[in-house]
Amino acid sequence: MSDWQPDIGRLLATVRHEEPDRVPLAEFSIDEPLLDKLAGKPVRTVEDHVAAQVAAGHDFIYLRANYEYHGAVPVVATGTPLAWEWARSHASESQQVSADGPLHELADLEDYPWPDPRTLDVAHFARASAVLPSGMGIITGVGGIFTRTWMLMGYEHFCLSLADNPDLPARAAERIGAIQCRVLRRLIGLPDVRAVWYGDDLAYTESLMVPPPFLRRHVFPWIEELAGIAHGAGLPFIMHTDGVLWEVLDDLIALGVDALHPFEPKAMDICEVKRRYGRKLALFGNIDLGYTLARGAGKPEDIRAEVRQKIRRLAPGGGYAVASGGGAARYISPDNYVAMRDATWEFGTYPITV
User: Fold this and answer.
1) 332: number of CA atoms within 13 Å, CB side?
2) CA angle 333, 242, 157 (to 5 degrees)
3) Hey, what CATH class is 59-259 in?
4) What is the reported pTM?
5) What pLDDT was estimated at residue 32?
6) β-strand 193-199 against 237-240: which pairing, if any?
7) Which ranges of the chain have pLDDT less than 70?
8) Where are the domains of the chain?
């Protein structure tokens, strides 16, 4: 049995490229059915979620303000009661993204019901703080600016508009970016908030979703502002984005990203990232979701071997946290998640000798 106790300090030390007592676990999200099984009961309240994250081996709970953009899939509002409820009510469905969105032309930007950062629900933060075990912290963030821009337009319409009506995606990204920055400023000073984790998928396993110039002009300045808000409060800035990121990895570091997640194995060689950027960027993830954890081998002994290998190659000197290469999806068996957690506890004590 592990002597593990939650300590947000070990995750913060990892981001600083220091060696804490042990390698942390750092999943961006764990799907509700898996959380239920890890907790041994239905996870419904914020208090339940804190207990479930402790069972998962996390030093933190991830919470956002409870809101979303009308027309975007609610489940992308990771870390909110809204997303938790949506996931429970759609547990048997795959995540569907509408081919269309509410923003068709410039006039729609004025009619759209934009969220008001001044009135957003953050009551669940205080409820979480009231039951946090000693040493555990809250990580907060906001949802992706790029993701919400294309979701509110529909992806095909968004892509066509890059050529046919470029003012629309540009101005939509501007509205969303300004709102997300205002939201983060409201969250950054709440009790027990110790880091910022921004989620925004920019790529597939084969390429970026759009050419870099759009990101550099209309998305990256907002990410830089978000990172500046975090750093101004003395907090690290972590980013989640799937896919292959070689074209923009230098950009992300220059914007102020301190740690990156999840490094899908078929998209990027995390050991090459470590070799080239290991002192500039902390690395979270890379345990193979498609093969080792779920649909392929799916055996605890294979998971144990992969976790041991990744810790041995990536953790010395700090800067690495164990997580799946995508997110703890509902199709991962509890036994497999527990195998990843327990292997991290077994092999992740510093100094690394495995």
Assistant:
1) 33
2) 115
3) alpha beta
4) 0.96
5) 83
6) parallel
7) 1-2, 91-98, 295-298
8) 1-33+262-354, 59-259
